[in-house]
């Protein structure tokens, strides 16, 4: 048996090299990741400020109790990303994680939008 007959044809090798050249990845996505994290931290810090004002004015909370609530909320938000990343990577995959996250976000936000819009409509009706 000839060694030349066992080696793959030259066109297959060049095709493999072309496929390897086409593969992208590495550090190309880092600017999007950094921007996403920056905006997430900005939103998180803004939410902490607004939450403290809301809890102070609407619920008359203050001092140590207010700080404890905000620390627990902030810590749980930061910690839950670790188990979420594990479940996403190990069991669900990107598509199902995004789909379930979008559905959960929609279901959480839907009652607040309905409640706010119904209060807004009822104020208009009472004003007439």
TrEMBL record:
The keyword Membrane applies. InterPro entries: MFS_trans_sf. The chain crosses the membrane at residues 61-83, 95-116. Keywords: Membrane, Transmembrane, Transmembrane helix. This is Uncharacterized protein.
């Amino acid at each position: 048996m000839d060694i030349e007959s066992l080696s793959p044809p030259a066109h297959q090798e060049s095709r493999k090299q072309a496929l390897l050249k086409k593969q992208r990845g590495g550090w190309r996505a880092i600017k999007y990741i950094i921007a996403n994290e920056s905006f997430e931290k900005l939103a998180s810090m803004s939410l902490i400020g607004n939450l403290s004002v809301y809890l102070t004015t609407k619920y008359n909370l203050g001092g140590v109790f207010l700080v404890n609530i905000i620390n627990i909320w902030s810590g749980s938000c930061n910690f839950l990303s670790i188990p979420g990343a594990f479940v996403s990577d190990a069991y669900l995959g990107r598509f199902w994680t995004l789909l379930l996250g979008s559905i959960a976000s929609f279901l959480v936000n839907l009652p607040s939008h309905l409640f706010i819009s119904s209060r807004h409509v009822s104020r208009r009706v009472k004003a007439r």
